[in-house]
């Protein structure tokens, strides 16, 4: 048996609009996501199923050419190998569950998928 208190997990900032807290079991990766309105995830795919459960907010996904907007208490299952991307329409809190541990989440290799060109803008 393994437990995890996400209240004690340090959040990782993937961009100024995208934060993730990661918990893993032997075969699953579970992330608590805090995504600000306007955050994008670039098109990508992976070899495992991914499930997104929106707890609060609104998040639009493009999956295999179809679009769906998730709101509170709605879930999306993305099949293995299907290209997908997303846009947060509102500030959103969600759970992301992957049917395999995510080495790219642990190493940070997925950071470019959440790149925000506005994060380096500043005024003089």
Write the layout of secondary structure elements.
Layout: E1 12-15, E2 18-24, E3 29-35, E4 40-44, E5 50-56, E6 58-63, E7 66-71, E8 74-78, E9 84-88, E10 92-98, H1 103-107
* Biggest sheet overview: 6 strands, antiparallel
Low-pLDDT runs of 5+ residues are none
Q: Say what the CATH topology of the domain at 21-102 is.
A: Jelly Rolls
Whole-number radius of gyration?
Answer: 14 Å
SSE sequence, one letter per element: EEEEEEEEEEH
Number of continuous helical runs = 1
Helix content: under 10%
- The coarse overall form would be globular
By CATH, the architecture of the domain at 21-102 is named Sandwich
* Mean pLDDT across every amino acid position: 86
Strand content: over 45%
Alpha-carbon distance between the two ends: 53 Å
Oligomer designation: single chain
Side by side, the strands of the main sheet go: 1-2-3-10-5-8
Q: What is the CATH domain class of the domain at 21-102? A: Mainly Beta
The chain-level structural class is mainly beta
Q: Could you state the CATH homologous superfamily of the domain at 21-102?
A: Jelly Rolls
Annotation, overall tally of beta strands? 10
